[in-house]
Each structure stands twice: as C-alpha cells, then as structure tokens.
Amino acid sequence: MCFYFQLEASSKRINLDPTIIITSLLIVYSLHILSLYMQGTRMKLVVNMIMGTMMGALAEGLTLSKSADISPEILLQVIFMLVFI
Hints:
Blueprint (H helix, E strand, L loop, with lengths): L4 E5 L2 E5 L1 H50 L4 H12 L2
Antiparallel strand pairs: 1-2
C-alpha cells in the first residue's frame, strides 16, 4: 500500500511519495548537523591561529630578553605571574 500527498500550487496538483518527503527531511537534518560540526572545525582553526600567534610572540620575547641580558627564566616567571593575577 502506498500513500501519496497532494499539494495544490497554482492550480496544479503534485503527487509526492512519502519516502521522498522523509528522505528530504533527513537530508536537511543531516546538513544541519554537519553545519554544527563545521562550526566546531572553524572555531578550532581560529583558536589554533591565536595560539600560533601567541607562541610566535613568546619566541620573539624570549629572543629579545636574551639580547637585553634578561634571563629567560625570569621573563617566564613574570609572564606566569601576570597570567595568574
């Protein structure tokens, strides 16, 4: 037994098979779930970019501290103190 839905649009009747409707809804739902996962991926890329920039700045700071005759250990202690205040 097969049931069909009828839609009337601009005086035309369209017969839709329920399997087509269910399949379409599943595709839309799958795309919604996929977009949620893709948002997480985009967020990870943004966080990785920020962390990479911070690591580059830390390396530059350590190099500058060596040329300014400041111990890198003291610089790291000061940075950690500023983070946890």
